[in-house]
Amino acid sequence: MKTSIATVSISGDLREKLAAIAAAGFDGVEIFENDFLAFDGTPAEVGRMVRDHGLEITLYQPFRDFEGLPEPQRRRAFDRAERKFDLMQQFGTDLMLVCSNVSPAALGGIDRAAADLRALGERAARRGLRVGYEALAWGRHINDPRDAWEIVRRADHPNVGLILDSFHTLARRIDVKTIRAIPADRIFIVQLADAPMIDMDPLYWSRHFRNMPGEGDLPVTDFMRAVAATGYDGPLSLEIFNDQFRGGSPKSIALDGRRSLINLMDQVRRAEPATSLNVPDMPDRVGVLGVEFVEFAANEKEGEELAALLSTMGFSLSARHKNRDVTVWRQGGRRSMNIVINTSHEGFAHSSYVVHGTNAYAMGLRVIDSSATVSRARTLGVETFSEQRGPGELFIPAIRGVGGGVIYFVDDALKKVWDLEFEPNISDAQDEAGLTRIDHVAQTMNYGDMLTWLLFYTSIFQTRKLPMVDVVDPGGLVRSQVVESDGGGMRITLNGAEGRKTLAGHFIAESFGSSIQHIAFASDEIFATAAKLKAFGFQPLQISQNYYDDLAARFDLNPEFVDRLRQSNILYDRDDIGEYFQCYSRSFGDGFFFEIVERRNGYRGYGAVNAPFRIAALKRLMPPAGMPGSVSI
Questions:
Q1: pLDDT range class, residue 632, cuts 50, 70, 90
Q2: Domain of 549?
Q3: Per-residue pLDDT tens for 55-89?
């Protein structure tokens, strides 16, 4: 598989783009005309730059408004093409993209367009060049790839081929099965892009909202399966127009791009085993059985404060590490919830504390095969993680998370870590509060990084993404999207903030990018749990009384039931099959908090409707702007 990406897909000047594309591991690059025109150098210099980076130019694009023009526009179009051919020969590339005409002057007719492309193919052949024809979804006469293929077929010239683009095909809901009948040697290049499902003008949709395969809602895998079935084995190239990407890190976006292509082709290979595309061999996406632990980095004082908060939630000090300043707080048995507090003065945990303050910097996931998990992640370009081990310490495979944290993988062979590395502590055991497992982990990031995180989780793990929802914060909008595994072994809520006026944005700013903002514990009987928490001295987040007055009317609830919710500061939601209950702690440190939830009768959501009221309650506890300090336990 030869991977390529258009320069328009990432930010920066041409030099920055090429450096990022090469560093990400791409084989080739499409030169987008505007990137060349803005570059202060000759075409020959661009070609040398590309080759010096170990890349090849897979395509020069776009050549617009060519076919079907009346005279004298037709003659001028051929003259323009000859000048582009001059540039291509200086670049050192042989393929130019011709997109279907959008000019009001364009005349319709399959045969007229075919004749023009055949004439262009003759000119290209004399120079050893090729032209690829692509149907734009908003083309004046040709906006369907089936018509574009018919034009190429009738042109009947070896130097004229078809360019297929997943966005232009899927945006118009074209049946991708029709692609399977196209001869592979007539497809010159395949361009790939995904997009969120939005009902808007195709041109505006395309120019602003494309994203990497797997980041949107279009059936790009089905499209690529149809392409693979033709026997096509040429370049797969990303062409992404996205406002966020234009302002993002070139290195990060390029890495996302190559990861998306590898993940896409791995899915295609598993669905179409006979594909001729050369795809890196790697394990399948990994199923997550559960969250084994979440680990906090802290200093001694803040570690004690966190431990005190955990105690009010029914956690007990269960074990101490034999070599390190690490304690384990547990409730419900070791396979239920392990909260680790690391106050070491060395190692990655200490570095994380220095940068972010007290933060949940690592989590451990239970998987079937930890080595296979890391192998897949490494093939997808994810950085592995390890640090020096002490006497008797196990090697636990791990990777770096997108936000700079660590994700460990624990399988059956590694679950003995709790016995080998820790001394049990039974003297401080206390009554539990009925918390049974980690329901979900909420991670907060800048909105511009949200697609990166989404691709990270969905490409490594067997997960599905839920529709994005908007959470209204008095300081702005926060976008939230859930990634969850089958059976709920791993549920991650990704919350993207655009400004620091929101609670999520404030957390990012104050913790210098720390990502896990809250952990939700599950209870099988939240009212009993709330009573236990009260007895343990837990201080719940105080919810506005107005919320409960509205709740009674909105759901037509029994007044006595609403009073029970009010007395325990429990929020409520329900969907078409079940009910959901939520109770929150107050903020700890720079804005971290805990949540207790109960799901009844298969409730599928996360109580997003209640988020504005939780946010308002947390903001009431924040110190006024300009004053130091944060809310303690």
A1: very low
A2: 435-620
A3: 999 999 999 999 999 999 999 999 999 999 999 99
**Domain-terminating residue out of 398, 424, 450:** 424
Q: What is the pLDDT of residue 429?
A: 67
Contact 357, 507 (CB under 8 A): no
pTM of the complete model beyond 0.90: yes
Averaged pLDDT, 187-200: 95
Span 382-413, pLDDT tens digits: 999 999 988 889 999 999 997 789 999 999 98
Say if CB 548 and CB 565 are below 8 A apart: yes
pLDDT for res 514: 64
Residue 630 lies in a domain: no
Residues 414 and 525 placed together within one structural domain of the fold: no
DSSP, res 77? H
Give me the pLDDT at residue 383, please.
Answer: 95
DSSP assignment string, 298-312: --HHHHHHHHHHHHT
- pLDDT score of 631 more than 60: no
Characterize 109-139 residue by residue with b for buried, 16 or more Cβ atoms within 10 angstroms of its Cβ, and e for exposed: ebebbbbbbbbbbeebeeeebbbbbbbbbbb
Of 132, 202, 142, nearest to 167 (Cα)?
202
Strands (E), 205-324: 236-238, 288-297, 316-321
User: Is residue 244 included in any domain, yes or no?
Assistant: yes
**350 and 262 assigned to the same domain:** no
| Same domain, yes or no: 252 and 299 | no
107 and 10 within one domain: yes
CATH number where 603 lies: 3.10.180.10
Residue found under tokens 């050192």: 92
Contacts of 114 (CB under 8 A, 6+ apart): 150, 151, 152, 154, 155, 156
- Cα separation, 513 vs 516, whole angstroms: 10
Point out the domain boundary residue: 424, 452, 471: 424
